[in-house]
Design a protein that fits this description.
The complex is a heterodimer. By secondary structure, chain A is mostly helical. Chain A has helices at 5-22, 25-49, 54-87, 90-95, 102-129, 138-165, 169-174, 176-181, 197-205, 207-219, 227-254. In chain A, helix 3 runs antiparallel to helix 5 (102-129). Chain A is elongated, with a radius of gyration of 19 Å. By secondary structure, chain B is α/β, with parallel strands linked by helices. Chain B has a single domain (6-88, 155-253), classed as Rossmann fold, CATH 3.40.50.300. Classes of the chains: A mainly alpha, B alpha/beta.
Chain lengths: 255, 254
């Protein structure tokens, strides 16, 4: 059964990628909100909170957090697509066929990674137009890509749990709101030093801050601090726990 | 009696407090059409889900094509195809892409050729490149059944294949089902329509309140009733007869 895992996953990945290329609005919707936030923060609030040096510098400061918000937006569609599959009979058809059963989930997860990367490229291009500049070399970009993919995988498995256990379409997407909100209480928009004690303690120790700081250091071509290990630990930790829970939820669903 | 393709013995299944199946037994001989007849909520879908390895029974055994559904689910999945109560098609893909997808997942050689052949057999060639979302109910069902045939599985489950279809689409589906059995496949279909079982099935089992209360051929089931009294009745055409006659003539004219 598992011998077909790779082949089956690729076939199913092709299927869900077609869903995305045929309704590009999902990618546009995913990119529009983060871009709007970026415009709002740079050109409306930016003057008041920017570290100085014009809008370009604040875009550069903001981008890592915006990237994470983009991913958080994107994964709600994964939950939605999974939920739709289960509502229609196609999920049962796949389950009653001699295919590797986990391929059904992995195809959705990989689709999430690919479609999120497309959205991220759009957001980065807009940021460049707004004055985002980086001296990061190929290796640093590769490191950013690695962290972004890892974060996407980790939160996508959360989306899988939500998609599998949702009772309605709205419910399938709603779980992502806290993840979208998390960057606001982090170092993504302002330095955590300005926040009052308890808020600052939360902001300093939640996953987004370490990930944002790492990406920011990589873009600024500064030696990455210990935050990269914290960031990796968070991504792996969330990913592994979410994956295990998703598999348990899936087994319960299909047996 | 090891020649039976499907053997179901003492099947029990409960959903929380609801005891849906209370000891279901039946056998299906190879190459026949077997109808599981019952009203809504009688447990027909539950039986089909257990047989197609989507659901585990609480008690009892079920053997499909020589494989136990609980112990050898992978072998069972190799032997069957399931057409569920709601057409299990991908609306965003085209008809042809749906068939190619299933052919690839069943690891068939030449998925494109298989798809084209089935499109022709089910009169969907003209609609092959259209998204399934634009298909009529009957076309969806035909595509759905076509998808079930890929890889020539010896056992085919059809769960209420004509529910929600108009009379013409119903007849199209009936013809497709007859074709399946004609090719040697064993078909288990569930239905709540008595005429459907009468039209299609060699063997009929009536599922009522969680058990099979009667089973046999139509002729055998008829014998359960007191002998027929011969009466002369003027046979009026039914509305279905009229509808089909009128639509057939207008179809010819247009």
């Amino acid at each position: 059964m598992t011998t077909h895992f790779l082949g089956d996953t690729i076939v199913l990945l092709g299927r869900s990628m077609r869903h995305i290329t045929r309704s590009l609005d999902t990618i546009i919707t995913v990119s529009v909100m983060p871009i709007a936030l970026m415009l709002l923060f740079v050109y409306v609030f930016g003057g008041a909170i920017s570290p100085g040096g014009g809008p370009g510098r604040y875009v550069t400061y903001l981008l890592p957090g915006i990237l994470l918000i983009t991913i958080a937006m994107g994964i709600s569609y994964t939950a939605y697509r999974l939920f739709t599959d289960m509502q229609s009979g196609i999920f049962e058809r796949f389950q009653s066929m001699p295919i590797a059963r986990s391929a059904v989930l992995w195809a959705h997860v990989l689709t999430s990674v690919v479609s999120n990367l497309i959205s991220l490229v759009i957001v980065v291009l807009v940021a460049l137009a707004m004055g985002f500049r980086t001296s990061a070399g190929p290796l640093a970009w590769l490191a950013v890509l690695g962290i972004v993919v890892l974060f996407t995988l980790a939160v996508t498995w959360l989306a899988v749990i939500a998609g599998l256990s949702a009772k309605s379409t709205d419910g399938a997407g709603a779980f992502s709101y806290p993840i979208i909100f998390l960057p606001f209480i982090s170092s993504a928009f302002v330095a955590t030093g300005t926040m009052p004690g308890p808020v600052r303690a939360f902001a300093d120790n939640q996953p987004v801050t370490s990930i944002v700081n790492t990406i920011r250091d990589l873009f600024a071509r500064q030696p990455v601090s210990a935050s990269i290990w914290t960031a990796l630990a968070w991504c792996l930790g969330i990913g592994i726990v979410a994956y295990a829970l998703a598999v348990v939820t899936y087994r319960r669903k299909i047996s | 009696m090891t020649t039976q393709v499907i053997r179901v013995q003492g099947l029990h299944k409960s959903y929380k407090d609801l005891h849906v199946l209370r000891g279901v037994d039946f056998d299906v001989a190879p190459g026949t059409i077997f109808a599981l007849l019952g009203s809504n909520g009688a447990g027909k879908t539950t039986v089909v889900k257990i047989l197609s390895t989507l659901l585990k029974a609480d008690a009892g055994t079920a053997v499909v094509n020589g494989f136990d559904v609980a112990a050898q689910p992978a072998n069972v999945r190799e032997s069957i195809s399931l057409t569920g109560q709601f057409a299990a098609v991908d609306e965003i893909l085209t008809g042809r892409e749906n068939l190619v997808l299933v052919a690839r997942l069943r690891h068939q050689k030449g998925p494109g050729k298989i798809a084209d052949d089935l499109l022709e057999r089910f009169q969907l060639t003209d609609a092959a490149a259209r998204k399934v979302a634009t298909y009529s109910g009957g076309m969806r069902r035909r595509l759905d059944i076509a998808m079930s045939l890929i890889g020539d599985p010896p056992v085919i489950f059809l769960d209420e294949p004509t529910t929600g279809l108009d009379p013409q689409a119903r007849i199209e589906v009936w013809n497709s089902v007859r074709q399946l059995a004609g090719r040697g496949a064993t078909v288990l279909l569930t239905t709540q329509y008595l005429d459907e079982a009468e039209q299609l099935a060699g063997q009929i089992a009536i599922l009522h309140q969680g058990t099979i209360i009667a089973t046999g051929t139509l002729a055998e089931l008829k014998q359960l009733f007191p002998p027929a009294i011969v009466e002369y009745v003027e046979k009026q055409p039914s509305l279905e007869d009229i509808f089909l006659a009128i639509t057939a003539t207008t179809a010819k004219e247009s």
